[in-house]
Every structure is written in C-alpha cells, then in structure tokens.
Design a protein that fits this description.
There is one protein chain. The protein is an alpha/beta fold. The protein is about 30% helix and about 25% strand. It contains 9 helices and 10 strands.
Length: about 290
Amino acid sequence: MRTLAAVLALSAILAVPALAAEESIALAGLNVTMWSRPSQPAARQPVIIFSHGFRGCATQSRFLMAAFAAAGYVVFAPNHRDAACGEGNAGRPEGAETPFRNPAAWNEGSFRDRAEDIRRLIEALKADAAFDARLDWSRVGLVGHSLGGYTVLGSAGAWPGWKIDGIKAVLALSPYVQPFLVHHTLKDLSVPVMYQGGTLDYGITPSLHRGGGGYDESPPPKYLVEFSRASHLAWTDAGRAAHEPIAAYGLAFMDHYVKGQPDPGRLSRVLPGVSHYRYSSDIGSVSGAKPRK
C-alpha cells in the first residue's frame, strides 16, 4: 500500500503542471517570468521566488515552477545579470572577482546583485496594488538552483547582510554552499531549509552530505534528499532524472513551512528514486532513510 501511495503521489505531480499559466512581465527593471493558476481564487496566494543557476535562465526549471503554481503558489523568477537569456547577457565571466574554485575568496559582495534582484522584486510587487492585493506576504518561500541556491541561502541569513525578512522557507537545489562552509555562516540560517542533491552531482552534492557539510552546518528544521542518477542539471528542464520526486519533496516542504499545512506523512516518506534521505525537524529526526526494496 505504501508503494501504491507513492506511485499515486508521483502521478499527481505529473498531472498538475498543465494547470499553470506562464507569462513574462517587466518589474523593478527586471525581466521576470511568472507562473500561476489561470483562474485565481479570491483568497491571497502564497509566493515562491526562484533564482536560476549561473548563466541559467528564469525559465530553466519550468517543470518545477509549474508544479508550484498548479499547487496554488504564485511563482516569480527574475533573470539575473548573468542570465543567458532575456535581458541577461551572461556578461560577467567566471573569473578573478569570485572564482568558483576558490570559495575562500567569496564574501558578502560576491554576486550580491542577485540578492538585490530578489529584494527589489519583492518591494516592487508590494508596491503594485494589483499584485499586493493578490499575494500573501506572510507566506513566502525562496527556491534556487546551483548559484541560485547560494543566492537564496544568502538571502535567508547565510550572508547576514543579505537577509530578507519575512521568508518562511528555502529550497536549495544542488546549491553552491562552499563559501558558506569556509566562513561557517550556515549556522545563521533563520528559516527551515531543504537541500536536494544527486548521486551524479559530483561537484555539489558531496559538500552537502559530508561530515561538516551543508546539512550538518545548518540549524534545524533541515532536510537533505538525494536522488539516484541525478546530475547537476536534474533540476532543470534539460535534465531527465528524478523530476517527479524533486517536485514531490519540494511541494511537501513548501506546503508545510510556507503554507503552514500539517504534514500527513509526505515529508517522512522515502519515494522511489531516492538514494538517501535525512532530516531533523518538527516531524522527527532520521539520519539516513533509504527506499524499501
């Protein structure tokens, strides 16, 4: 029965993106992609803001953003200055300013413009009467992939000077955490965090699950889920592995911590396609659950 329930949950995730509409808007000097339900309910809706990867794109992870929107969130994804599409020109090279291979050289000034994009976007949405009437600012979550994961972790307190008030939870998808590990700042996260990684994500995931890595350094509530055969691009539409469980865990996490819904076992379930799962939170503590065979 547990296996059947897991399959049904995955089937539901596959179906919901068709219910979401996508549109492009210009706001706060940013080119922003928005996902939402075509027919809006009267109640204010929770908000997700997505930060793309280095030289990525606001639309790089449509499968996941559409799933959030179909579940009732209004999702906004700005193109950052390093984006390879839209108004971004990928004009900032990976060079001496903030080299990825030398995380000790990073500080609060490294890619701070990305955090400022999120701050400006939130301020602009609040200043827009139509959006402000529609959005519930007591329920806001941040999602980021790769350098976008670095961006949203920094905005949740890992860089104290970046901290954005009012954030309820952070979903960090194969996030670049090495600068925070060097500077020991993940302990300053002020909201629940879920890290997602993959067994083929050799450049990032080891820094999340090793002793003294991202998961260990973060305060609870915290989660780490690793997907079998998922590489660094699994969280984008270019990837093929693990889209269903990626969305299932992301939705369960945000529904619990952003929407404030009780968790009826969704966050404790180990779905097919998961190689390793651990968490320390209000739902309990598990050090390394694996799927049952």
